[in-house]
């Protein structure tokens, strides 16, 4: 649809946007040492859709007629490319399936409702005609929450919410904005910023994900230390069901039994379709500054962040890369082309030399970023308080230069996955959360599990991590792993490595996912995470709410 933005059918983001390593002189040697790959320049600027072998649509004519009557013929499509855009999310496994034409069950029709009434009528049709309905936001999911079951024989309807993309109202007294669920992150922020407000929710997928998708998958953004996770941000919502619409008013707090709001957040389309949300918004800050710090060790960096939290210093975010991720980040630095840049590079090398003279192991050092927002006075005071704690843990303050660069590039990393796939290399992620007392145990367990899996497959693999999203009781750990895949059998070895890391989370005291959701990818660990009885309760909820199994069946719990 010309008026709804989509990502490219074969990869992440927009056509013409790529990861480029040729202006990063340290990157190719780094990758060769880490996983044994000799990088070659990018050869794939695009993939012609003519190469896709797409299963035919199974949509019956009477179903198409109902949908066209509901949303207009121009908003209903059985075109192969649109069906492929909507068939899966953007996990590396799904990208690999798409590029290899390993399509399982592609949606039969894509419909773009333009109102809540149209969504209601679509769901009524789904129940009456026994269709499968899968809500679609930006398509950025990496937990396989958009893929239909490969044995699904019913007609599958992808309901793309992209036409419902407006900020409807801002209650400036309460700081509440009512927003349609299909709005993409940048479009929403543009509308809010124009009136002096921000949601403050910036996940890695920000440019290609929607407000409704964030709520449906229980998302967390980079700035959650200040603004909260999406479950903290959503105050009210409208959930369309075939029988009626659940309306939850934006009240500051209620005592009305088990929280329906919490029940809907994270439900991944299994209870109905979220059409509208009322969210907490904030005035745009006067100052926004990101400062970089370098710590001698991972443990000292984690201790510092925990102490920021204990001291209740109001931060927008505090992030720490472990030694492996720090080495990766340094390897992605661009070559200096200006006199100023070359001087900065020499200054960095001189700083590393000073650190080594002080007894630092520069292979163990950890890069950290802290974001400060508020008035000029607030930011100055908070920077001083953080610097005092960081220095007490041995850190060197690197200043705002590296921090500004991080802020500019923070949404770029997913493009690296497409580049690596062209090099026959998997690069993917797993994330978890655990109490502070368990964090180093979880970190070590994931490293050990990954290396054991690589050894079983006789592979040289890589793993790295960063800590983000800190809370009073603990924090999120976000792992990235990479290895050269076997072209004959890429899926089995992927599941072996990913499963080893996921199981290590549970065994060492973490959760199966902090913010990517469950989908199908993380189902195997649900009973271990929330207990068998917890899974039975979820089964009961979904069976009562959707007895025909019409709403994104098979997600979260089978």
TrEMBL record:
Residues 103-284 form the FAD-binding PCMH-type domain. Substrate binds at residue 417. It is an enzyme of class 1 (oxidoreductase). Pfam families: FAD-oxidase_C (PF02913), FAD_binding_4 (PF01565). The record marks 319 as: Important for enzyme activity. GO terms for molecular function: alkylglycerone-phosphate synthase activity; FAD binding; oxidoreductase activity. Keywords: FAD, Flavoprotein, Oxidoreductase. InterPro entries: Alkyl-DHAP_Synthase, FAD-bd_oxidored_4_C, FAD-bd_PCMH, FAD-bd_PCMH-like_sf, FAD-bd_PCMH_sub1, FAD-bd_PCMH_sub2, FAD-linked_Oxase-like_C, Oxid_FAD_bind_N. One of its GO terms (biological process) is lipid biosynthetic process. FAD binds at residues 135-141, 204-210, 217-220, 268-274. Its EC number is 1.-.-.-. Its cofactor is FAD. Belongs to the FAD-binding oxidoreductase/transferase type 4 family. This is Putative FAD-linked oxidoreductase. It comes from Kocuria varians.
């Amino acid at each position: 649809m010309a008026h709804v933005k989509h990502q490219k059918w074969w990869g992440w983001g927009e056509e013409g946007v790529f990861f480029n390593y040729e202006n990063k002189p340290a990157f190719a040697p780094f990758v060769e040492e880490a996983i044994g790959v000799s990088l070659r320049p990018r050869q794939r600027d695009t993939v012609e859709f003519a190469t896709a072998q797409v299963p035919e649509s199974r949509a019956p004519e009477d179903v198409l007629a109902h949908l066209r009557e509901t949303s207009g013929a121009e908003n209903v499509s059985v075109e192969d490319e649109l069906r492929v855009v909507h068939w899966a999310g953007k996990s590396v496994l799904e990208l690999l399936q798409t590029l290899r034409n390993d399509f399982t069950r592609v949606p039969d029709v894509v419909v773009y409702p333009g109102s809540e009434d149209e969504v209601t009528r679509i769901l009524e049709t789904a129940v009456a005609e026994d269709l499968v309905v899968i809500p679609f936001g930006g398509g950025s999911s990496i937990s396989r929450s958009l893929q239909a079951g490969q044995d699904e024989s019913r007609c599958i309807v992808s309901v793309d919410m992209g036409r419902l993309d407006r900020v409807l109202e801002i209650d400036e007294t309460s700081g509440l904005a009512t927003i349609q669920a299909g709005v993409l992150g940048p479009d929403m922020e543009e509308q809010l910023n124009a009136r002096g407000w921000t949601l403050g929710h910036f996940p890695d997928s920000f440019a290609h994900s929607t407000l409704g998708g964030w709520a449906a998958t229980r998302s967390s953004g980079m700035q959650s230390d200040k603004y909260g996770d999406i479950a903290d941000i959503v105050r009210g919502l409208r959930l369309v069901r075939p029988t009626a619409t659940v309306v939850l008013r934006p009240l500051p707090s209620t005592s009305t039994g088990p929280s329906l709001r919490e029940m809907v957040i994270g439900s991944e389309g299994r209870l109905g379709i979220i059409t509208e949300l009322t969210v907490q918004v904030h005035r745009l800050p006067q100052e926004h500054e990101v400062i970089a710090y370098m710590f001698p060790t991972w443990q000292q960096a984690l201790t510092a962040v925990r102490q920021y939290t204990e001291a209740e210093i109001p931060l927008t975010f505090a992030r720490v890369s472990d030694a492996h991720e720090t080495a990766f980040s340094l390897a992605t630095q661009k070559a200096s082309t200006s006199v100023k840049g070359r001087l900065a590079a020499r200054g960095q090398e001189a700083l590393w030399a000073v650190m080594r003279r002080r007894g630092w192991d520069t292979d163990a050092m950890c890069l950290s970023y802290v974001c400060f927002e508020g008035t000029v006075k607030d930011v100055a005071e908070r920077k001083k308080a953080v610097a005092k704690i960081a220095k007490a843990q041995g850190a060197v303050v690197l200043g705002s230069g590296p921090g500004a660069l991080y802020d500019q590039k923070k949404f770029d990393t997913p493009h690296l996955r497409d580049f690596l796939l062209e090099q026959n290399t998997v690069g993917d992620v797993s994330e978890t959360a655990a109490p502070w007392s368990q964090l180093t145990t979880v970190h070590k367990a994931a490293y050990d599990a990954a290396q054991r899996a690589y050894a079983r497959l006789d592979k040289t693999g890589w793993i790295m991590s960063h800590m983000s999203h800190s809370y009073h009781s603990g924090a999120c750990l976000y792992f990235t792993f990479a290895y050269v895949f076997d072209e004959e059998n890429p899926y089995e070895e992927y599941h072996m490595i990913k499963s080893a890391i996921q199981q290590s989370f549970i065994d060492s005291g973490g959760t199966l996912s902090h913010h990517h959701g469950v989908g199908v990818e993380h189902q195997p660990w649900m009973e271990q995470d929330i207990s068998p009885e917890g899974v039975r309760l979820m089964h009961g909820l979904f069976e009562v709410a959707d007895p025909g199994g019409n709403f994104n069946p098979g997600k979260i719990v089978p």
